[in-house]
Design goal:
The protein is an alpha/beta fold. Helices cover about 50% and strands about 10% of the residues. The protein has 18 helices and eight strands. The strands form two sheets. It has a six-stranded mixed β-sheet with strand order 3-5-6-7-4-8.
């Protein structure tokens, strides 16, 4: 098995599985070691996959630990450890599946599918704890229609949770304050969002007048089903520009992050409304030595209708930064 064909997060999980096996004095790395390591690897996204499929991750970990403790212990004098025949079979199944899908790398969801297809102890363990058909459905949904050409694919899939804040989720949990006296502005925003063209409202006003509160009010109305049918079940996400820029030391880091966010949003098929506070900061954000700025990256997505936006800025900054960019300015409707 060529480990270089695995995505970075899957390689990390295999390394952690080896540590788990060594810690228990096992001479073979078994599928149970690998699955436990995958669940412990937060960045890999395996726990989120199982939770989405209705499994309780704590129960899976408990059963896996029991399975690991039942394995025979034999301390190797040389400290060598090898891969079990069942794990080799899973690797081969995953490799074959990845090739059929035209993937350059074996990703987490392909490896999990291979674990189920192997019909060994892991399959039996999972079938007793949840619905395998639902798990397969979640794995298919996560993958989408694209191919895995990037070893960092798992990191990119978590872009929305890393670089945005879900206002609808916060509204559901009661973490947003009630919005009072903003009915006209919220209604106007909803009207613009319902349009067929030029349906991206930009809220213009002085600092502190409550522009962000309008986005929060919109999220609360969506949660309370007080919006037209076209906006029902949509999610309002706030773009965290600070998180996007933080640590982007090298040219292309910022663009890659924003590109992965836009890619995730396009996969949601219009179910996301992106709120961009201080919208003027987008014009020129990430720009260095001819690198593309965020504003230019948003234009194609806005033009194709893949991105539904609500912007917020002050009048002076709108004139100074946004109006000068005619292509960006005509995508938005002033409110």
């Amino acid at each position: 098995m060529n480990f270089e064909k695995l995505t970075n997060q899957l390689q990390k999980s295999i390394g952690n599985a080896q540590s788990i096996a060594l810690g228990q004095d096992h001479t073979l790395i078994e599928p149970c070691h690998v699955l436990l390591a995958m669940l412990d690897n937060v960045e890999g996204g395996t726990s989120a996959i199982f939770e989405k499929a209705g499994f309780k991750v704590s129960e899976i970990k408990l059963k896996l630990n029991d399975e690991i403790k039942s394995l025979p212990s034999l301390k190797s004098p040389s400290g060598e450890i090898s891969v079990s025949s069942s794990l080799i079979k899973i690797f081969n199944l995953a490799d074959r599946s990845a090739q059929k899908k035209n993937d350059r790398f074996i990703s987490t969801e392909v490896f999990l599918e291979a674990m189920i297809d192997e019909k060994g102890k892991i399959t039996n363990l999972l079938s007793n704890l949840g619905n395998l058909m639902e798990l397969r459905k979640v794995l298919t949904d996560i993958r989408g229609s694209g191919t895995v050409d990037n070893p960092n694919v798992e990191n990119e899939r978590q872009s929305l949770s890393k670089f945005t804040i879900d206002l609808t989720e916060r509204a559901e949990l009661g973490k947003l304050d009630p919005v009072i006296g903003r009915d006209d502005e919220i209604r106007r925003t909803i009207q613009v969002l319902q349009r067929r063209t030029k349906n991206n409202p930009v809220l213009i006003g002085e600092p502190g007048v409550g522009k962000t509160a309008i986005a929060e009010g919109l999220a609360q109305r969506i949660v309370n089903s007080e919006v037209p049918d076209g906006l029902r079940n949509k999610r309002v996400l706030t773009l965290d520009l600070g998180a996007l820029l933080a640590g982007a030391k090298f040219r292309g880091d910022f663009e890659e992050r924003l590109k992965s966010v836009l890619k995730e949003i396009s996969k949601e098929n219009g179910r996301i409304i992106l709120f961009i506070d201080e919208m003027h900061t987008l014009v020129g954000a990430g720009k260095a030595d001819g690198a593309m700025d965020a504003g230019n990256m948003l234009k194609p997505a806005l033009a194709r209708g893949e991105l539904h936006c609500v912007g917020a800025t002050t009048l002076n900054e709108y004139r100074q930064f946004v109006e000068k960019d005619a292509a960006l300015e005509r995508r938005f409707q002033k409110c």
